[in-house]
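Much of our argument rests on the idea that a fold can be written as discrete symbols. Part of our work consisted of pairing the sequence of a single chain with a tokenised description of its backbone. We regard such an encoding as a compact summary of how the chain folds. The amino acid sequence and the backbone structure tokens for this protein are reproduced below.
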Amino acid sequence: MSVKEDLLRNLKISLDEKQEEQFEKYYAFLIEYNKKINLTRITEKKEVYYKHFYDSLTIVQTVDMANINSICDMGSGAGFPSIPLKIIYPDLDVTIIDSLNKRITFLNELTNLLEISNVHLIHDRIETFAIKHQKKYDLVIARALGNMQLITEMGLPMTKPGGYLVAYKALNYDLELSQASACINKLGGKISDVRTFELPQEFGHRVHVVVNKVKHVDGYPRSFVKMTKNPL
């Protein structure tokens, strides 16, 4: 079974010729650029396609993408999960925040190569950007960014009321989630789903923690030092 077949069978995503070509270009450019700066330790083609591309797209099982117009990807790194989502949903308005300018440079070259628009690349600290962009996005996403308390305090203020914050997690999420429950409640969120699933071809287990924003709470996020020293 190929990744294209798995996408169709499991996620109901059908790749057209242009999208297949974009993913091929994405892979080739990622591997070449990875020789200059460390973007990923996963370089074998099949692993990249499943552990990065396919994994990024699993959110379609968790969130109804038909209702999502704007997304913010916190600490995207090499563009996961937002660039694969942008390839599948070209009308999405995407904002990517990363504190390392080398990664922003990579993403700028990548989006030019893939000929995709409405991708806003922000070189900034997430908490600095978030305090100035409250209630702005339908969906805020984080993959391999940090603990759930940190993700919540940085991401939920940027989420529109009625929107979603989704954290991509590994299976050992239980303790982290229990520690973050007070923070989620304080910031006007509610855990609406915790979805566990397996990647095809035995490429591992994944979890999506879904927080629905019920109401907006002003004054957050705090500084990084305060968030880490005094978690909510």
Notes: The beta strands are 70-74, 93-98, 119-123, 137-143, 159-169, 189-198, 205-213. The first helix runs from residue 3 to 11.
